[in-house]
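Before the break, one more example. Copy the sequence into your notebook; we will annotate it together after we see the structure.
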Amino acid sequence: MRRRTPLARIALPIVLTLAVVPRAAAQTSWVNRLAGPGAREALTSPEASVRRDAALRLGRRGEPRQSVRALLDRLASEESPEVRQAIFEALARRGDPVAIEPLAAVLAPEEEGEPGAADGALAVRAIGAIGGERAIRLLVGWLGMAEVGDEAARGLAWIGPSAVPHLLRALADPITAVRAAQTLGAIGDTRATAPLVARLRGALPVARVAMIDALRAIGDERAGPAVARYLDDADPNVARATLRALAVIGGPPQAEAVAALADRGTSEQRAAALATLMVIAPEAAAPRVAPLLDEAGAPAVRRAAIDAMIEDPSPPLVVALAPLLAGEDADAAAEALARIAGGRGLDPLLRAARESATRRFDRALALGYRRHGARLDAARASAIEAHLAGASLGARCLAGRPNSGLREAVGEQLTDPDGARRALAASCALLLGDRALGPSLAARLEEERSPMAFRMLALAALRVGARVDPGLLDARWWDPETAPEALWLAAASLGLATSRSRARALRAMRRGLRAAEPRARAGAALALALAEERTAWRALVAALDDDHDAVRLAAARALAALAVPEAASAIEAAARVEAQDDVRDALFVAARAPGGRPPPAMLPGDDVLFVRISTAPGLAIATQLAVDVLLADGRWLRVPALDGGAVLVPDLPAGQAEVQIRLGRD
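Here is what the structure looks like once it is written out:
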């Protein structure tokens, strides 16, 4: 059975150090001027906005236990919903278990109509953020509550593996079984596989669906045979869930039963079964798909089959994908053929490219050759190269085989009067990654006036290892269109800078964290990481409160790369209140928090993918470490690490990017 390539785990050596805060001294002299005492006093201000700001400030600064007690005292009497929300967030950031019981009391007010009675979800969220054994027991007890059950499940998923034993017990209660199963799936711990399988037989249909979905999310193939028994379940929702699950945890032993549904089921069953069969046994799916392409009587099945082939192509499906090159799905089919392992889809793609009067398939063919060219025999490689020799400059560069003629064409177009054509030439240099183009790129950067062309030139210079005196880039640091790329190149070029120019560049990176454009702020965060500016950790921690997801994500990744132990507690506090899964996962990695999750193999498309990788001493990072990125739009890139082990992939499209970190020469 084919599986997506897992992300190779190359450790980022981050040491987690938690500082011990001494007991506060007497509240006299300079102590009275600390954030804690001042904010605690402001909690009693008649102005709601002042109280709200004070609560948020106490969530980040001030003596821990005194701040928590002050927040809890204020919560008991605060009437403003906005201030109460700020208090809940502050308590979550503090993460002090002493707050759990007072927060739990919000869900059981002594008097009907007490102000805290409407704040159950916020209280449950804060308890989940604080975590610990007591929090787990409370949250599990609330899973069956209509008002806060979903919030309790999210809290338990956030807590992670330590909640698994409690959730397994909750599977026995019909009231909590559904949410317990969903939470186990979100945690993804294989300890839940056997208990979930054991509970399937006696579960109600709605709980059975949740349990099967959980087994799919966990991804443990041992559950495949047990789940396959429910392909013929009387409840159609269970049958659909079973097919979805078998696409992940099934294998050849289940292929016969799935194929039977693909042949004789309802239209909906046939469509779902075919999609599953293409994953677990594509050789069995291929002969069933081909007749469907001309079947007018089952348009839904035909559409589902085409979509499944395009989404997850494999060698046995080449014969079914090739005819699609002549229809309305031609472009998507071409991209799918270019992705098929071993380059086995390139022969029909080459034939279609030769026959096309518009050269519409050149790009897909170039992508396929870029990915699989090293595995092709000499005759097939020569045939593809001969065809691409007449392709556009972009397609030839996309194929990724530098030669003197291609270098000359790129260099000539870098001086074209049209800024768009210069940008295209720079993007070609980026795709080629040819160090011989470095001098041309560096020379052009100094005089480039087109923002679009400058961005691509800077990225190409980074890619090929060209460096530019940061002092020549300072005019670009303040332009939101070019700031990220200019700062990244400056960070990589600090070795060429004078002490004055270096200081100016580092100041620009820090100021960039306060820029108006989110993209500029995110770029500045990553630039500080590229520059290895560990003293900027406080500014990056502040960026974790940015309103824009991409900025918080960039700051989290930058903090992970810099690995500053002093930032650990602040990173953990930010993770407790982070709503976005990808940002929270990046924060877990940055803090190396207990129960944290490893980086996912499938990353959501962002403006930028940035990782820094550390390897054993003596390994030549710049020449032996690379990242393969299969983008959501079908493009495939191989990105070698920059000096120092940083990998920067800009402008990712929306969707999922499959990432594999590997050793070996590019």
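Confidence is low (pLDDT under 50) at residues 1-34, 113-117, 593-604. The first strand starts at residue 602 and ends at 604. Try to locate both features in your own notes.
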